Each structure stands twice: as C-alpha cells, then as structure tokens.
Amino acid sequence: KTFSDSYFQKIYGLTQDPKTNSFMFVMEFAIHGDLHNYLLKNLDILSWKEKLDILLLIARNLKELHDKDIIHCDFHSGNILINHGDPKINVKICDFGTSKLADVSSDYNEVYGVISYIAPEVFKHGHYTKKSDIYSLGMIIWEVMSGYKPFYGREHDVTLILDILDGLRPNFIEGIPKEINDLMKKCWENDPLKRPTA
After folding, report:
1. CATH class of 11-194
2. Angle made by CA atoms 86, 40, 65, in degrees to the nearest 5
3. Where is the Protein kinase domain (predicted)?
4. H helical segments located in the chain
5. Are 166 and 158 in contact (CB under 8 A)?
6. What is the pLDDT of residues 159-185, one digit of tens each?
7. Which candidate, 76, 82, 176, 180, has a CA 20 to 30 Å from the CA of 107?
8. Would you please indicate which residues are annotated as catalytic (active-site) residues?
9. Helix 130-146 and helix 35-42, axial crossing angle in degrees, nearest 10
C-alpha cells in the first residue's frame, strides 16, 4: 500500500548501532514533536479554529489510512507528529509497528497500546478494527480540546480498564462546541457499530 507523503512520516533508511547492534529507523524530523508535547507548549495560544484544523488534519490522515484498509492499532497523541506546513502546521501519523491490514486476522489476541486510548472491545476480545481506531480518535479529540491526556491523574492499571469496560469516559469539556462533544460521544460508543467512520 502506498500513501501520500504529506500524511505520514517518511522513513529514509535503517541504521545499526555499532556498540549494541540494535537497528533504528532514520525518519523524517518533526520540528514540534508529537501532538501531546505540542499541546503542552501551545494550548494557551491555540484558537478554537486552530484546534479544529488540527483535528481535521488528523481525521483526514486516519481516513487515508482506513481507505487503504489499514488499522493503526496504537493511535494516540504520541503517534501524531506536528511539523511546519505551508502556510499552516502539518500533522502526520507515525509508528506503524503494530498496524495491520483490516482483512487480515491474527492468530493471537494481544492487547497493546496506551490504556486510555484503547477501545473497550479490544480489552474484551483483543481484536483491533477501524472502529477501535475511531474510539482512539475520540480520545484524541478530547485531548486536543482539553490539553490533557484522557484519564490523567489516574493509575493506568486493571482498575481503569474495568472502569472503561463499565462505560467510563472522560468528562465533557465546558465551553466547547456542542457538535464536538456530540462527536466525541459517538466515537466513544460502547457498540463499535454505532461509531462513525473516518
């Protein structure tokens, strides 16, 4: 599958550390780092329009991925890079190490990723789908609007997983457009079939 260079982080090559023999990718540099750190540094100066622009770019990139029948499986703010664009910022998705083709089933049901972004059905069955990426997108929307990672201040442990399975979601944010709150709620639906598509 091929992608537009403007949506995904470029990989230039592979190198090996002569001391440890570990391999490393040589990848495109993102001047602003990942989305979470960008929000930490800039949340107070970002307008609603700029936040919405970031979210639209993220959704566009996720749609491109899903249109190619690829599921990210570890979609969170640490895997979204922010760079200078022309004339605005540019958003790129990275870290496809756990991604899979939508039509390929795996023999194992391993759960991986950041707990607060993982869809409830993944905890139950270990199966990642496009709809589990959409759940993660809902958490990313909340993070862009609030400036905090979902469930900040809580231990990311079995208790949090059980609470998520029982329907726990982050609190809605005062003062943001109703349409954004409604979209987050749809992305967080317990029933994956009720979630929107990218």
Report:
1. mainly alpha
2. 55
3. 1-198
4. 35-42, 48-67, 120-125, 130-146, 158-165, 178-187
5. no
6. 999 999 999 999 988 888 889 999 999
7. 76
8. 74
9. 20
